[in-house]
Amino acid sequence: MNKTVIIAEAGVNHNGDIQLAKQLIDVAADAGVDYVKFQTFKADKLVSKEAKQADYQLKNLGGNSIENSQYNMLKKLELTESMHVELLKYAKQKGVKFLSTGFDEDSIDFLEQLGIDLYKIPSGEITNFPYLQHIARKRKPIVISTGMATLGEIEEALSVLKGEGVDLDKVTVLHCNTDYPTKYEDVNLNAMLTIQQAFKVNIGYSDHTLGIEVPVAAVALGAKVIEKHFTLDRDLPGPDHKASLEPDELKAMVSAIRNIEKAINGDGRKEPTSSELKNKDLARKSLHVKVNLEVGDEIGLSDLEVKRPGSGISSMYIPRVVGRKVVKPLQAGEILDWSHIQ
């Protein structure tokens, strides 16, 4: 069975607290995800001090926003190198793979030293030419989000990766909408299929809606990777908590995805399964004799009725039964069998 890779996006929901980050790993491991993902960056390299916060960040941070600056917000959310090492070790102990999105070349090199087994390109870096080249040269599987991107921009990014020798079979392109939370009417899940048709790549979905329905639907449509933000508590301060799943919701999403995988894993042939054959005769109907009939009587349509069980002659054969003669006495209510007629 093809298993969907589920990435639980802790992101910056640790609020810069290593203990909170470990609790997030606990939740991810308990939910049964494949990866727990953080973010690796230095605010000084990621953003200028003049960059304003996004509207959703302003809304979610409220009075906690300092000078409405992305820099001040992100500076508090950095994970040190030693924190990364500690979290990697902790995740391994808990049986879940550690992953992080690096936002610059130095961060990517550090993650390479940690030995991560794939790279995640966030939506904001899809038009970052040197960054794309740098990741491509690591020669590892790549997952790339496409929030805010056009089909043309996705094509250009894939061209950069391919130009550096990346086998596109090792690239998974995630449809995504970069709004927190994303309104259901803005999801446009069919765009995921458009990406697949256009580039013949593995597809997935990075979800920012409030519920679990859309990622589950994405799996039913063929997503091979699902990424979803989660938190310990949506009421915690921070930019992303409000658009994240709480622990029980994350667990429910994983369970639903695993069930959907089983449901779509068939070979596509329409035929009875072994599990339902036992119900076939009970649910279907067959021909029953409506009146007493003697040997030699010719069966008329009014002599028959259609009832459960379906262990006798199917009513689909009425044209072949009417007009035939009875070879043994039959009682009203008896199931008609081919051995009863000539």
Automatic annotation (TrEMBL):
InterPro entries for the chain: AFP_Neu5c_C_sf, Aldolase_TIM, NeuB/NeuA, PseI-like, PseI/NeuA/B-like_N, SAF, SAF_AFP_Neu5Ac, SAF_PseI/NeuA/NeuB
Any Pfam family from its record, for instance, is NeuB
Example of a GO biological process term: carbohydrate biosynthetic process
Residues in AFP-like domain copies: 286-342
The UniProt GO MF terms for this protein read: N-acylneuraminate-9-phosphate synthase activity
SUPFAM superfamilies reported for this sequence? AFP III-like domain (SSF51269), Aldolase (SSF51569)
Q: What is this protein called?
A: N-acetylneuraminate synthase
Annotated source species: Pontibacter akesuensis
Taxonomic lineage from the root:
Bacteria, Pseudomonadati, Bacteroidota, Cytophagia, Cytophagales
